[in-house]
Amino acid sequence: MDASEAVSAGPTRQAELLRSGTMTSRQLTEATLTAIERENPAINAVVQVLEGEALASADEADRRRASGQDGPLLGVPIAVKDDLAIARHRTGLGSRAMLHDASQDSDLVAALRAEGMVVVAKSTLPELAIFGFTESEATGVTRNPHDHGRTPGGSSGGSAALVAAGAVGIATASDGAGSIRIPAACCGLVGFKPTQGTMPSSGGWHDLSTQGGLARRVADSALFLDTFGSFADSLVEAAAVDPAPLRIGVSFSASAATKAAPLDPDVRAAVRTAAETFRSAGHTVVEVDVPYGVAAKALTVRYLAGIRDGADGVDRPDRLEARTRSIARLGRPFGPRAVEWAKRKGQEWGGRVHDDLGVDVLLTPVMSGPAIEVEHWKGKGGLATVVSMNAFYPYTAQWNHAGVPAVSMPAGSTANGLPLAIQLIARRDDDARLMALAGQLERSA
User: Whole-model pTM?
Assistant: First the structure.
């Protein structure tokens, strides 16, 4: 395997090639930069290419390895979503309202550097990471590599598009209401949202948001999370071994608060197929109806208050998009007491929902259909966008509210080649068992 082929091989294989001396980090980084230059014009997934810094970091990684050092991801290239601060660069947040360069790295970026990963680019996102599509006045429209007329999802759409296009092996992503899982579903990737509080640089939107990564394979997702997160058990080890028989609940229900759009038949069939796969593997699979109740309404408080706080924290609020300002105004009524009530409701619900249903893991759709067309929500006002978007993406945000781990897994494709996906949701801190189930599903494909 030469360096150009290794770019899309994923971080697990890349680390093996670097460790064996088959290639250097410099060679792999140069090939990654070439791939970004080749693929990005069609998908518009990059805010900034960090070529000089990346090559310097790659050379340093090679020096570290030559001196006898090693590490799980030493010398492996990575793209960073532009919601994480990188020292001496502007953290754009998909907005024209951010003007100043960061004085220091965010905690996760600092950890990437300490591990010896090579940051090659900053990836696009919608303004303030609000939307389930990656379009903004600041950076334009990011497109899905599977179909340039479709969105790669959001808010981690730039990261997903780069990985799906084969321009980078892994990219950081964050998830406050589905922003890892939705792009993964749109682009045919693995998108694992870990238990809240397990990853550095998490906690935004009043603890709805967590950091993670987007990759092509379960093992790659596990390696990234294991390297930078805090988990009771090894996710890498879990990903390689089938779990003991589980009780899996299949649910197509969504919170009444979202007014969910009709479910596409292909998505429903993908969930049914996954259920049969698990049943054949020895798991007990039952139909359930998730009881969202008051917890669903409480989620809105945290979501809107988080957007309000984000809008208040930019350098130039007057330069925010009109739609963003409109949504931020919806969060004005929610003070600290309301937010704390909402967080408590989410934690209580998340702590009992699996037990109430008598299941270990839930199996649901990720979205109401395959990736939607680009600019589908162009020109809509703030409230209209939120209502319509939540109808198309009604299956993800509640699990941020609950704080539990959830993963979007590839599940085939439509007749015209658009990726399909399913979602698996486990109890809080049951990340390893969820990763094991994801690995089993991947091996069965």
Answer: 0.98
